[in-house]
C-alpha cells in the first residue's frame, strides 16, 4: 500500500514543473502571449493535458491508497482503469512534444524574420522582437550587422551580437525536452501504479479465497 503514495507525490512534482515551464517569467509578457497564441496553439493543449493528468493522478492515487487500505477490489480496479486512460493521454502528449518540436521552431523563426523585416521598414517599436529577445536572451539575426538595427529592442543585459535564430531553437528545444521527458517519466510511474494495483488486487482475491 505504501508504494501507492509514490503516485501523488510524483505527480505533484510533475504538475509543478509543467506549470513552471508553461507560466514562467519568460512567457508572461504580452508580446510572448501574442506570439504563442499565433504559433503554438496546436502544441499548448499537450502541456495542459500533462498538468491535468498530474493533478488528477494525485486524487486517483489517494483513492488507490484508500482501496488498498480497505482491501476493496472494486476501488483498486477503478484505480487501474483511471490510470490506463491517463497513461494513454500522457503518451500522446509526450509524442506531440517530441514530434512537434521541429515545426514549432520553424514557425517561431519565421515569426522572428517577419517581425525583423517589419521593423526594418517602419522602425516602430516591435513588441514581438522585444519578447523574443528576452525569451532567448539574444540580439540579432544570422547577420552580425543586424545588431546595429536591433540594439534598441534588446535588453540592457544583451547588447552584444548573439544569433537569435540559433538561440530560439536552443530555448524551445529545452522546453520541449522538459515536457516530453516529463511525460515519458510520468507514464513510467503510471505503469508502475497499474502493475502494483493488479498485483494487489490478485493478492486480495487470493487471500479471500483462502478464507
Automatic annotation (TrEMBL):
The keyword Transport does not apply. One of its GO terms (cellular component) is plasma membrane. Its main location: membrane. The chain crosses the membrane at residues 47-69, 76-99, 175-204. It is a multi-pass membrane protein. The keyword Membrane applies. It is found in: Membrane. Keywords: Glycoprotein, Membrane, Transmembrane, Transmembrane helix. Belongs to the tetraspanin (TM4SF) family. This is Tetraspanin-2 isoform X2. It comes from Xenopus laevis (African clawed frog). The gene is tspan2.S.
Amino acid at each position: 500500500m505504501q508504494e501507492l503514495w509514490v503516485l501523488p507525490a510524483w505527480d505533484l512534482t510533475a504538475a509543478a514543473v509543467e506549470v513552471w515551464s508553461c507560466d514562467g517569467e519568460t512567457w508572461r509578457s504580452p508580446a510572448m502571449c501574442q506570439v504563442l497564441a499565433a504559433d503554438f496553439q496546436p502544441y499548448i493543449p499537450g502541456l495542459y493535458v500533462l498538468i491535468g493528468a498530474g493533478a488528477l493522478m494525485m486524487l486517483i492515487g489517494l483513492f488507490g491508497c484508500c482501496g488498498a487500505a480497505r482491501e476493496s477490489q472494486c476501488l483498486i480496479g477503478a484505480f487501474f482503469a483511471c490510470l490506463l486512460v491517463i497513461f494513454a493521454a500522457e503518451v500522446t502528449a509526450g509524442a506531440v512534444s517530441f514530434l512537434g518540436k521541429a515545426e514549432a521552431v520553424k514557425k517561431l523563426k519565421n515569426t522572428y524574420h517577419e517581425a525583423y523585416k517589419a521593423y526594418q521598414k517602419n522602425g516602430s517599436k516591435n513588441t514581438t522582437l522585444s519578447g523574443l529577445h528576452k525569451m532567448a536572451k539574444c540580439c540579432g539575426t544570422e547577420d552580425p550587422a543586424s545588431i546595429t538595427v536591433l540594439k534598441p529592442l534588446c535588453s540592457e543585459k544583451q547588447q552584444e551580437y548573439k544569433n537569435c535564430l540559433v538561440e530560439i531553437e536552443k530555448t524551445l528545444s529545452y522546453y520541449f525536452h522538459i515536457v516530453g521527458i516529463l511525460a515519458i517519466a510520468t507514464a513510467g510511474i503510471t505503469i508502475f501504479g497499474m502493475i502494483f494495483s493488479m498485483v494487489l488486487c490478485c493478492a486480495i482475491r487470493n487471500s479471500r479465497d483462502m478464507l
